[in-house]
Amino acid sequence: MYPDISAPSNDMAAFRTVLASSRRIIAIAGAGLSAASGIPTFRGAGGMWRKHDALSLATMAAFRDSPSRIWQFYHYRRETALEAHPNAAHHALAELTIPTFREKIAPGSAFTLVTQNVDALSPTALETVLAHTGATLSDEEKHVALIEMDGRIFDVVCTAYECKHREEIRDSPLSPALAGTEELVAAGAKEPDIPHEDLPRCRKCGALARPGVVWFGEIPHRVDEILSLVDSADLCLVVGTSSTVHPAARFARQVREHGGKVAVFNIDRTKRDTDADFLFLGPCEMSLTEALSVPSDSA
Fold first, then answer.
1. Pfam families in the record, alphabetically (predicted)?
2. I need a surface site. Which of 9, 29, 230, 258 has the fewest CB within 10 A?
3. How far is CA 123 from CA 46, 80, 86, 148, in A?
4. Where are the alpha helices (DSSP H) in the chain?
5. pTM recorded for the entire structure
């Protein structure tokens, strides 16, 4: 039986008791998960959206108005992601997707990681953990275990309505005209106006391409699956997110409203902490790895 918790607790032993009793676990991850990997966060101190106006950089309207500016911003983000590697928190969540590992800390449970991050570090961590442990997951099991709801920064999508070709491209840079502009974005300097014909193009039809991420006002990937998972979850792990962007901002509260438990792992306090049964402040690569570690007598 779950302990009666009326306010967020930082009792790690109590959390691990709840974890061991949980059967349907979901994790909602945000930018803080990748902070230790060198990926800038968005809304914390020094966050990317404090330096750049989100609505001027992450909408289709903004792209139509200035594809040169938007591509330079996303080129900067692509270059940052290309240099990054998964950290301990990514690996801890990746291990939780493996049934044989999960059986040691949450017997008989199912788990899905829903990440808002577009840096592709979570799938990289999963492949690394599988290779290191010798465990295997089918493509279908991987599909169930990990949902990248906002897409991937390395995906490139054709803007031509009759084409809409999507592919993952990790070339650096995507087009020669973008080379070096990441330094201007990082410095907050005025960017050059790159002609449309010199921006990334669709490799299938040649039309102007766009970054393959979900922008504000667009529908996240696999949202129906996510909502179904939220509706059935008895434990929600909120990892490194300010919980301000919908629909993800309400997931934890929805879990709690139907009787599930919520554990938040974050570097700072947020206004959504009242939705939590457990609150662990500090770098998630430390708190989360402790929370999800295998007990020494079970290793």
1. SIR2
2. 258
3. 27, 17, 9, 9
4. 12-21, 48-51, 60-65, 67-83, 88-96, 99-105, 121-133, 139-145, 181-187, 223-232, 251-257, 284-291
5. 0.91
Compute the Cα dihedral for 9, 11, 16, 17 and give only its sign. Answer: negative
Q: Are 86 and 39 in contact (CB under 8 A)?
A: no
Per-residue pLDDT of the chain (299 residues; tens, 9 = 90+): 334 445 789 999 999 999 999 999 999 999 899 999 999 775 444 444 445 566 678 899 999 999 999 999 999 999 999 999 999 999 999 999 999 999 999 999 999 999 999 999 999 999 999 999 999 999 999 999 999 999 999 999 999 999 999 999 999 999 999 999 999 888 888 889 999 999 999 999 999 999 999 999 999 999 999 999 999 999 999 999 876 666 777 898 999 999 999 999 998 887 777 879 999 999 999 999 999 998 776 55
Q: Residues annotated in the binding site for Zn(2+), as ranges?
A: 158, 163, 202, 205
**Contact present, 28 and 251 (Cβ < 8 Å):** yes
Whether omega before 195 lies within 30 degrees of 0, making that bond cis, reads no
Instruction: Count Cα neighbours of 78 within 13 Å in the Cβ-side half-sphere.
Output: 28
Tell me the angle at which helices 284-291 and 88-96 cross, rounded to the nearest 10 degrees: 30
Q: Is the peptide bond before 220 cis (omega within 30 degrees of 0)?
A: no
Give the helix/strand (H/E) hosting 26.
Answer: strand 24-29
